[in-house]
Structures are given as C-alpha cells and as structure tokens.
Amino acid sequence: MKSSRFFAILISFFLTLLLSVSWATAKNSSHEAFLECLESHSETSNPISAVLYTPANSSYSAVLQSYIRNLRFNESVTPKPQLILTALHLSHIQAAIICAKIHGLQMKIRSGGHDYEGASYVSDVPFFILDMFNFRSINISIENETAWVQAGATLGEVYYRIAEKSNVHGFPAGVCPTVGVGGHFGGGGYGNMMRKYGLSVDNIIDAQIIDVYGRILDRASMGEDLFWAITGGGGSSFGVVLAYKIKLVRVPSTVTVFRVARTYEENLTNIVYSLPASCRQVA
Ligand SMILES: Cc1cc2nc3c(=O)[nH]c(=O)nc-3n(C[C@H](O)[C@H](O)[C@H](O)COP(=O)(O)OP(=O)(O)OC[C@H]3O[C@@H](n4cnc5c(N)ncnc54)[C@H](O)[C@@H]3O)c2cc1C
Ligand SMILES: *[C@@H]1O[C@H](CO)[C@@H](O)[C@H](O)[C@H]1NC(C)=O
Ligand SMILES: *[C@@H]1O[C@H](CO)[C@@H](O)[C@H](O)[C@H]1NC(C)=O
Ligand SMILES: *[C@@H]1O[C@H](CO)[C@@H](O)[C@H](O)[C@H]1NC(C)=O
Ligand SMILES: *[C@@H]1O[C@H](CO)[C@@H](O)[C@H](O)[C@H]1NC(C)=O
Ligand SMILES: *[C@@H]1O[C@H](CO)[C@@H](O)[C@H](O)[C@H]1NC(C)=O
Ligand SMILES: *[C@@H]1O[C@H](CO)[C@@H](O)[C@H](O)[C@H]1NC(C)=O
Questions:
Q1: Closest CA relative to residue 164, chosen from 140, 137, 183, 190
Q2: Last residue of a domain, one of 92, 112, 131
Q3: Mutate to test the pocket of ligand 4, among 65, 75, 78, 121 (most ligand atoms within 8 A of CB)
Q4: Which of UniProt's keywords are assigned here (predicted)?
Q5: Which of 131, 152, 173 is the last residue of a domain?
C-alpha cells in the first residue's frame, strides 16, 4: 500500500518535471525567436543587443525599477516583462514594433513611468517594455518661441532647459518634475498655468511618431486626425511618440507663489478683491 502511494507520487513528480521542462523549452524557443527577430530588423551599425535586458542580465531589475513610480507595482508578485529594450536609435523602436506584431508579444511603452496603474510596465499577458528614457533631448528656439522635446524627457528637464535660455518663457504642464513628456503630453497635461494658457496639448504644434508599420511621421504626414488623437487620447493606442514640438508661452520674469487659507466666513472674497487683477486670475 505504502509503496504504491510512493510510486504514484514519484510518477506525478516526473510528469510535473517533464511538463515544466517542455514548457520552459517552448518558452525559451519563442523568446529566442523574438530576440532573433529584433536582431534581424535593426541596423548592424546600431546593435540592438547592447540595449536588451532579459531577466538573465544583472542590470535587469535596476533598469526595470528605475521608472516604476508607483511602488504598489514594485513587488515580487507584479508581472515582469520578458525583456526591456532601452532604445537608443530609431531602428530599435521600429524593430520593437515590427517584432511585437510578428510574435504577438505585447509592447508596453514607458517614458516617465508615472502611470497611476502601471500601464507602461505591467500587464496580465506576456509583454516587454520599450523604455524611452534615452530619448530625452530638448531643443529650444527662443527666437521662434518653440521647442522640440523628446518623449523620454521629464517635465522638470523641460522647465529647466527653457529657464536656462529665457526667464520670460515657460510651458504650461504638470507640477511634478519627474512626470514624463511621453505620457503627460499624450494625455492632456494640466498645471499651474492652466487658467491662462490651457492644457499642455493646447500648446503642442507638431509631433513625431512611429506608427504600427514602423513609419516615422510628423504632423503633416500623419494627418490632423492622428495628431489630434496623440495630443490627448493617449499615445500608446496609436504608436510610439518620439517627440512633441511645443509653443513656449510668455511668463513674468518674477513669479510669486503663495498660499492663503481662508473660509468665506473669514472674508475670503474681500481678500480676493483686494488683490491686483493679475493675481486674482491665479486665485
Ligand atoms: C506623482 C505624480 C504627479 C502627477 N502630476 C500631474 C500634474 O500635475 N498634472 C497632470 O496633468 N498629470 C499629473 N500626473 C499624471 C501624469 O501626467 C500621467 O500619469 C502621465 O501619463 C505620466 O506620463 P509618464 O510618461 O510619466 O508615464 P508612463 O507611465 O511612462 O506612460 C503613461 C502612459 O502613456 C504611454 N506612453 C508613454 N510614453 C509614450 C510614448 N512615447 N508614446 C506612446 N505612448 C506612451 C504609456 O504606455 C502609458 O500608457 C501625475 C502623476 C504622478 C504619479
Ligand atoms: C535557451 O536555449 C538555448 C539552446 O536551445 C540555450 O543555449 C540557452 O541558454 C537557453 N536560454 C535560457 C534563458 O534558458
Ligand atoms: C544581456 O545579456 C546578454 C547575454 O549575456 C548579452 O548578450 C547582452 O549584451 C546583455 N545586455 C546588456 C544591455 O548588457
Ligand atoms: C523596489 O523593490 C526593490 C526590491 O525589493 C528594492 O530594492 C527597491 O529599493 C524598491 N524601489 C523603491 C524605489 O523603493
Ligand atoms: C525659426 O523659424 C525659422 C522660420 O521657420 C527657421 O528658418 C529657423 O531655422 C528657426 N530657428 C530655429 C532655431 O529653429
Ligand atoms: C535636437 O538636436 C540634436 C542635434 O541636432 C538632434 O540630434 C536631436 O534629435 C534634436 N532633438 C529633437 C527633439 O528634435
Ligand atoms: C470681515 O469684514 C468685515 C467688514 O469689512 C469686518 O467687519 C470683519 O471684522 C471682517 N472679519 C474678519 C474675520 O476679518
């Protein structure tokens, strides 16, 4: 009796072992095939292997965690990407899009990682992350009052670069300096200058996107419908946003920020009316 139970356990153990081995082989072979696809769809002059992190790479966890901005999703039980691609070159992004389609692997695009639900780095299905933090250049023209800003830049970097060149220009966007341009401008963007200048997207005049076919498009070539969609509708539904061209706005060289807490019973309205008109707008 005892030995038959022992054999039953032994058999089920080997069955489990066999199943997990064949599952791992299947998983490995599709994973290998995906890596091969990335290699073959990118330029040899810009090797994609230099920007690929699989769980086998010692830096995988550090790269993954550096843009997890909601620590609720920094847990061992949080689903992990099969791969993180820290794109350095346009061909890396094009390869990611094309191979994701060929292999049916979900691609999550991450810029600043501030999505409240972790939508840029968590998924219920097998996925990989296209990380945009290397695409963070900011080119400002004070002469034209415009700037091209890449998706991986943060709002703080945008404000800083503008302030470096002019103390009478700014850009209406969010308050938190580590929020990413990619998600923020794709979704709207509100902040302290909203009353005077509206949302970030009210001040975006051009964009560069790589679409599902790997084509690099600007506003003229993508058309007004797609441009409208990626300036408020969330970029990731439509492609990978590379950069936005923004219209700088005029700001006073000195801005005073203060907070006064008063209820109506404490003559709130008197205080508002005693302020100069320019301040009242803020109040
Ligand atoms: C602490 C904190 C403060 C905030 N403050 C403000 C605020 O003051 N005002 C305000 O309006 N909002 C604010 N937000 C919300 C924030 O603007 C949004 O969560 C925004 O989507 C974050 O952008 P991200 O690039 O950092 O996020 P990510 O998590 O990287 O991306 C957010 C979404 O956009 C997609 N996406 C990212 N990059 C690209 C790209 N290059 N191309 C296509 N799709 C892309 C992602 O796939 C994901 O779906 C705040 C959020 C946090 C966590
Ligand atoms: C995948 O399989 C190949 C051989 O088929 C092996 O060399 C490689 O180490 C495996 N990789 C992983 C991550 O298991
Ligand atoms: C990750 O590890 C693989 C295998 O060792 C290596 O080929 C690749 O260059 C590593 N990636 C990075 C970004 O170091
Ligand atoms: C995320 O989790 C890892 C592993 O537990 C930890 O080392 C890291 O400090 C965490 N990140 C933050 C910002 O707390
Ligand atoms: C400013 O705009 C003009 C006219 O469109 C253009 O020729 C010039 O290159 C722009 N300057 C910068 C620095 O972008
Ligand atoms: C800014 O200029 C540099 C150098 O000309 C260029 O490589 C980069 O792509 C530009 N960035 C943007 C967002 O246009
Ligand atoms: C509110 O204003 C009225 C009239 O100006 C004044 O009499 C009263 O003392 C004020 N109340 C407070 C709380 O300042």
A1: 140
A2: 131
A3: 65
A4: Disulfide bond, FAD, Flavoprotein, Glycoprotein, Signal
A5: 131
pTM score of the predicted model:
0.84
Reference 239, options 126, 34, 81, 97; nearest CA is 97
Query: What's the pLDDT tens digit per position in 42-65?
Result: 888 999 999 999 999 999 999 999
The residue whose CA is least distant from atom 4 of ligand 7 is 267
| Residue 115 or residue 2, greater confidence | 115
Pocket of ligand 7 (CB under 6 A): 266-267, 270
Whether residues 153 and 224 fall in one domain:
yes
In total, how many domains does the chain have? Answer: 2
244-259 CB burial, b ≥16 within 10 A, e <16: bbbbbbebeeeeeeee
User: Mutation test of ligand 5: which of 138, 141, 149 has the most ligand atoms closer than 8 Å to its C-beta?
Assistant: 141
Quote the domain boundaries for residue 87: 2-131
